[in-house]
Design goal:
It is a single chain. The longest helix has 18 residues, at 420-437. This protein has helices spanning 3-6, 13-19, 55-67, 97-109, 226-240, 269-277, 282-297, 303-316, 340-351, 356-359, 420-437, and strands spanning 27-33, 39-43, 72-80, 85-88, 118-121, 156-162, 171-174, 181-188, 193-197, 206-213, 217-222, 249-251, 259-268, 382-389, 392-400, 406-414. β4, α4 and β5 form a beta-alpha-beta unit. α3 packs antiparallel against α6, α3 packs across α8 (303-316) and α4 runs parallel beside α5 (226-240). The chain starts with a helix and ends with a helix. The protein is an alpha+beta fold and 438 residues long. It has three domains: 3-69 and 271-437, 3-Layer(aba) Sandwich (Beta-lactamase), CATH 3.40.710; 72-128 and 228-268, 3-Layer(bba) Sandwich (D-tyrosyl-trna(Tyr) Deacylase, Chain: A), CATH 3.50.80.20; 136-222, no CATH class. The strands form four sheets. It has a five-stranded antiparallel beta sheet, sandwiched between helices. 29% of the residues lie in helices and 24% in strands.
């Protein structure tokens, strides 16, 4: 018996709901046929619930609609007729210190060796670096780095901890320079058990590290100030290219005349979308939503502009958003609210859009991205986005059912009493029922 055939014994959705051991009032479900939007099953479908990262489907899709599939993040270096350098930032989530080095090398190759001034155009996004309602004690969470016009190296640092002799302090270092002080309370012992903490309101550049270390371990740490880190790497790139400039980096919008292109770094939106849908990258999602909002109003990217863009998208596509609340681009904030009915309406709408065959491939199937080890028996017939926060688990997307129908579904579970594994198991039971029933 094949794995999918075995699923035929799975009960219907109502029976599955009764047998999963989670309060049904904490679960919202909507299932619709994509061919006409017919409601196939609903349960608490109009109950506003925190969607976690499934919200990225909404924000990234609306951003894609505004920016277009051919959009590129372009970071551009110009030279003015007054022998000044002007760097125009794009908030590119994929920008690296290696890209900075390439720009400065090109400047040197073009004989720009003693610029009179160095200007930075950072107006692509505002200066708000975290989302509304993000938790203060998540500031060291590598999945939640700050985001800004100065995105570089994913705004993350890598700390390497090595043991020394048993009972002696460990050795801690960063793989790249950044002015961080480690309060080293780690001793070399019989196991790796490390805790990191930081008090941003007291000493943001001091990280407390405690515990024991047996063998080398690496820890990813969010940069406390992306702008500061960017300027450090820019200065390193200038020195490496042997360009003679020791002044300040001054904020200024790029002039419309008397400038000449030196070089540019381009990264297509396709890479960012892949990172958002398949890997649930929060920094990429926040950046894309804000940048698209900026383009929508032809001004600086800011959440208020992104929300105007979202409202207009709903209006022009006939989506009712009365019970929807979006306060960030990633779904990290507990202040976000979504209904399962809105999500499935949104998913059904996409099936009518040009390019849906490419769009659905943005969602990971079983064995990919956030579905790396989940629902392998549904490989290639399911395309979904997952979401996880404390007390919240969600999943939405498309599945081709046993009867050959393409179905859109959304499941959101907001329950403090069940473990994350129990919520995910419940999702799978419901999805199996959807597959068999419809």
């Amino acid at each position: 018996m094949t794995a999918l055939a075995a699923q035929a014994k799975t009960p219907d959705i109502n029976s599955a709901l009764s047998g999963i051991g989670i309060n049904k009032n904490a679960i919202a479900i909507s299932v619709k046929n994509t061919s006409g939007g017919k409601v196939l099953f609903s349960h608490n479908q109009n109950l506003p619930i925190n969607p976690a990262s499934t919200q990225k489907v909404i924000t990234a899709t609306v951003a894609l609609d505004t920016l277009g599939k051919d959009f590129e993040f372009v970071t551009t270096l110009y030279k003015t007729t007054n022998n000044e350098l002007q760097l125009k930032l794009s908030a590119d989530p994929g920008f690296t210190k290696g890209n900075l080095s390439d720009l400065m090398k090109t400047a040197k190759e073009k004989n720009i060796i003693e610029p009179k001034a160095f200007y930075i155009d950072d107006y692509v996004m505002d200066s708000v670096e975290w989302g509304e309602g993000w938790q203060w004690d998540d500031d060291l969470n590598p999945l939640m780095p700050k985001f800004s016009s100065y995105n570089i190296d994913r705004n993350l640092l890598t700390a390497v901890i090595d043991p020394s002799s048993k009972g002696a302090p460990a050795n801690i270092k960063l793989t790249t320079f950044y002015p961080v002080t480690f309060m080293n309370m780690v001793t070399s012992g019989n196991e790796n058990s490390i805790e990191l903490s930081r008090s941003n309101h007291i000493s943001p550049d001091i990280i407390n590290v405690s515990g024991t270390i047996k063998e080398r371990a690496s820890y990813i740490i969010p940069v406390n100030s992306p702008k500061r880190y960017f300027f450090i790497k820019l200065d390193e790139a200038i020195r490496s290219a042997k360009i003679e400039y020791y002044g300040q980096f001054i904020q200024r919008k790029t002039p419309s005349a008397n400038i000449y292109l030196v070089d540019e770094i381009k990264h297509p939106i396709s890479g960012t979308l892949k990172d958002i849908f398949k890997n649930s990258n929060n920094m990429a999602a926040e950046t894309l939503f804000k940048v698209a909002g900026g383009k929508y109003v032809n001004n600086t990217g800011a959440l208020k502009n992104s929300l105007k863009m979202f409202d207009e998208y709903c209006k022009k596509n006939g989506l009712k958003r009365d019970d929807i609340k979006i306060v960030d681009g990633s779904g990290v904030s507990k202040n976000n609210l979504m209904t399962a009915d809105f999500m499935t309406d949104f998913l059904v709408l996409q099936t009518k859009k040009e390019g849906f065959d490419d769009y659905i491939k943005l969602f990971p199937t079983a064995g990919e991205g956030t579905l790396q080890n989940r629902m392998l028996y549904f490989k290639d017939i399911i395309r979904v986005k997952t979401g996880t926060l404390s007390d919240v688990s969600s999943i939405c997307g498309y599945i081709k059912t046993r009867n050959g129908n393409l179905v859109a579904f959304d499941i959101m579970i907001n329950d403090a009493k069940s473990a994350p594994s129990e919520k995910k198991a419940a999702e799978e039971q419901i999805i199996r029922a959807i597959y068999n029933k419809y």
